C-alpha cells in the first residue's frame, strides 16, 4: 500500500495544482458538512437548505452522499454556502433545532494528490458573512498538522477568536464559540485561514448548534468558567 | 495570554495525572459526541439514548451541555457507551435516521493541563463491541498532532481499518467506513489507540450515519471508487 493509493485524489479536477491555479485550488481548500434538522420530515429541509446555499454561492462545487456534503471553492464562497444552508435549514425546521457538523481542510493530505502546497502559503482575506439574527453555539477544534508545534498555531487561533468576540472559553477537547451564526462561521473560517499562513495542512472541526432547548450550559465545571484568566 | 490560561483544565479531576492513575486518565483519554435524531420530538430520543448508555457503561463520567456530551473513561467503556447510545437512539427515532458526531481525543492539548503524557504510551487492547444488526456509514478523519510525520500514522490507521473490513475507500478530506454499528465504532476506537502507541496526542473525528434514505453513494467520483488500487 503506497501513500498515494489511499489518499483521496479528485479525478474531476486534474488541473488542481496546475501553475496559475487559484489559491484555494493550489492549497487544496474544501469542506465537508452535514445538516441535522431535528425533524421527522428532514428531507425537504436538507434539500431546501442546499438549494438556498447553491443560490448564495454558485461557484462552489457540491457533492452530496449519504453521510455528508463536499464543498470545493474559495473560503469566501464556502462561507457563504454554509451560512445560507444553515440559516435556511433553521428557517425550515419546525422544531427550530438544527445542528451542522463542519470540517474544513486545507493542504495535504486530503487533496491535490497528497502533495503539500509549494511556494508561499496563501494569505486569505477574512470572509464577509452577514449577520442572520440567529444565535449559534459551537464546539470547535483546530488541528495544525505536520508540525511539532501544534500548540502555537492553536493559541494563535484562540487569540483570533477572542479578538472576534465569539470565544466563550475552553471546554474539554474543544473551544466554545457563541454569537450570531454569521459571526461563528466567520470565526471558524478566519482562524483556519490565519493558521494556514504558517502551516500548510490545517483541519478544523465544529459542531454548530442552533435552537437547542438547553439554552446555555448549566452543569459541571467543564463548560465556560466565568472569571477564568484569559 | 499563556498557554495554560486557554487550555481546558478539568478542575473536577485534580488527580488526573497522578502517579499510578489508570492509563486512560494518564493519557487524557475522552470523547465528545452529539446525537442527531431526525425527529420533531428529539428530546426523549436523546434522553433515552443517554439513559441506555449510562446503564451499559456506568463507569463513564458524562457531562451534557447544549452542544455536545463529554465522556471520560477507558476506551472500552467509552465504546460501550457510544454503542448503546447510538443503538438506542436509532431504536427510538420513528424516521429511523440518526447521525452521531464523534470526536475522540488522547494526549495534549485538551486535558491534563496540556502536559503531554510522560513515560511510555499505553498499549490499549482492542475494544469488544457487540454487533447490533444496524448498518452504519461513517466519514472518518484521524489527526496525529505534534509530529512532522502525520501521514505515517494515518496510513497505519487506514491499514488497520482495511484489516478490520470496515474500510470503504478514500473520500475528499475523509475516509469512508461501512459496517455494523459495532464494527464501525470498534474501528474508530481501535485505530485511534493503535496510533496512540507511537503518538501521544491523537484526535479522531467521525460523522456516523444510520438509516439515511440515500442508501449508498451514487454521485460523482468523490465517493468510494470501486477498483481503485489499495
Automatic annotation (TrEMBL), chains A, B:
It holds the Pfam family Ykof. It comes from Actinotalea soli. This is Thiamin/hydroxymethyl pyrimidine-binding YkoF putative domain-containing protein. SUPFAM superfamilies: MTH1187/YkoF-like (SSF89957). Residues 1-23, 210-230 are annotated as: Disordered. It comes from the Bacteria. Residues 29-111, 136-214 form the Thiamin/hydroxymethyl pyrimidine-binding YkoF putative domain. Residues 210-221 have a biased composition (Polar residues).
Amino acid at each position: 500500500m503506497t501513500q498515494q493509493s489511499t489518499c483521496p485524489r479528485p479525478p474531476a479536477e486534474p488541473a488542481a495544482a496546475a501553475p496559475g491555479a487559484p489559491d484555494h485550488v493550489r492549497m487544496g481548500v474544501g469542506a465537508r458538512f452535514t445538516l441535522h434538522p431535528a425533524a421527522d420530515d428532514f428531507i425537504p429541509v436538507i434539500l431546501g437548505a442546499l438549494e438556498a446555499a447553491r443560490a448564495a454561492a454558485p461557484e462552489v462545487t457540491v457533492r452530496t452522499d449519504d453521510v455528508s456534503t463536499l464543498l470545493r471553492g474559495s473560503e469566501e464562497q464556502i462561507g457563504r454556502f454554509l451560512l445560507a444552508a444553515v440559516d435556511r435549514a433553521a428557517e425550515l425546521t419546525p422544531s427550530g433545532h438544527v445542528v451542522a457538523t463542519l470540517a474544513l481542510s486545507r493542504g495535504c493530505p486530503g487533496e491535490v494528490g497528497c502533495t503539500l502546497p509549494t511556494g508561499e502559503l496563501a494569505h486569505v482575506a477574512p470572509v464577509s458573512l452577514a449577520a442572520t439574527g440567529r444565535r449559534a453555539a459551537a464546539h470547535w477544534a483546530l488541528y495544525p498538522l505536520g508540525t511539532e508545534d501544534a500548540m502555537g498555531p492553536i493559541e494563535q487561533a484562540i487569540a483570533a477568536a477572542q479578538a472576534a468576540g465569539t470565544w466563550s472559553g475552553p471546554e474539554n477537547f474543544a473551544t466554545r464559540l457563541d454569537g450570531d451564526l454569521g459571526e461563528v462561521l466567520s470565526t471558524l473560517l478566519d482562524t483556519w485561514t490565519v493558521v494556514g499562513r504558517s502551516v500548510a495542512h490545517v483541519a478544523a472541526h465544529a459542531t454548530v448548534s442552533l435552537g437547542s432547548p438547553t439554552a446555555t450550559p448549566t452543569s459541571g465545571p467543564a463548560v465556560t468558567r466565568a472569571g477564568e484568566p484569559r
